[in-house]
Amino acid sequence: MGLNWYAYIGGTAGDPTLARNYSRIVHGKPGCVFGAFVCAIYSLGGMITPYSPLTPNIQTYIANGLANLVPEPQLPVGSKPYVYMKPSS
């Protein structure tokens, strides 16, 4: 399957770098953008979860999002976000 949005649903010790902690968003994009917690990722995957393990790029974007509290990547300017954040878990 191709790229899809996957919502972070928690689980396994709350680790946002584990693919099994995400569930595919069937219609549209996530309704969140900024915040201290991972909301969703745009990743290669199947009908229910993204492929495991998450790519090194996605893992880096997650780490940067948690540090910067904004969608990632931010650079270069105008980049498509692959990680969205949300204000609360």
From TrEMBL:
It comes from the Bacteria. This is Uncharacterized protein. The lineage of its organism: Bacteria, Pseudomonadati, Bacteroidota, Sphingobacteriia, Sphingobacteriales.
